[in-house]
Amino acid sequence: MSTFKAIRIDKDDAGYRAGLTDFDENDLMDGDVTVAVTHSTVNYKDGLALSGRSPVVRRFPMIPGIDFAGRVESSTHKDFKPGDQVVLNGWGLGETHLGGYAQKARVKGDWLVPLPAGMTAAQAMAIGTAGYTAMLCVMALDKFGVRPAQGPVVVTGAAGGVGSVAIALLADAGWHVIASTGRREEEDYLKALGAREIVDRAELSAPGRPLGKERWIAGVDSVGSHTLANLLSQTRYGGAIAACGLAQGMDLPASVAPFILRGVSLLGVDSVMRPAPDRREAWSRLAKELDREKLAAMTKTIALADVPSAAGEILSGRTRGRLVVEIPQG
Q: What pTM did the predictor assign?
């Protein structure tokens, strides 16, 4: 087909807008693999891109969507052939390179990861960049060396995508998980994922002391700002926090006290430019370690046309878990 359905973002004298449209295949960007996209997902960064609230998108027009799963249609890349099932996260997709909210994408094969055996494309996007990032955080904590026997782990933004997957992974690995959320009505949902304790977001989101009472040995934070500062100040001696997000803000109003008095470590986790070996390890572990029933319980499926309206929901914190975008072909 010469045209296909896609969400398109434009920015011009008429303003910033996103909507479903027909996109010309000839306008796809350079790449050595063309993929028939069957599923994508809505991550927090997608919400920022669709709304224009943050300068995520660097070229216009843009097809947003920072990840996708689908089937290779054509390829000149040595590692992929027509019919292969693939996943893509990051590498500027939906920011500088036309993204996943479309029936078709043309990308560099070096960006792709084979869909793990036993995992469907829908499950891969139920995980999406948020769940993949959660696994990268777990991997960072594992590599650092903290273990469940040393104490609890705290997860912020608990009802969101990163938080939900992180809770499920950590609980199944034997951790005592403390979930931080501003939505007390989600307590049953979080406990079903494996959380043992619920902490009100307000306890961590306001300015705190440079050094607080030691509460946890590890953490996964997708919030940043005062929340991350408070996590660090309350981490036990020798512990670590894996930081991957900025829902509260990009600032870090903290002191050096946790680092120099308790030997606490801050582990930065990036998902966009991650090397291929790390990506394959993360997806392999997700296929083996993430409980599929828990994944299904945190997942809602929407149509491609519903993506723009989902942006406001995720930015306002009204979504739970993961939003999968189903993209029919033809």
A: 0.94
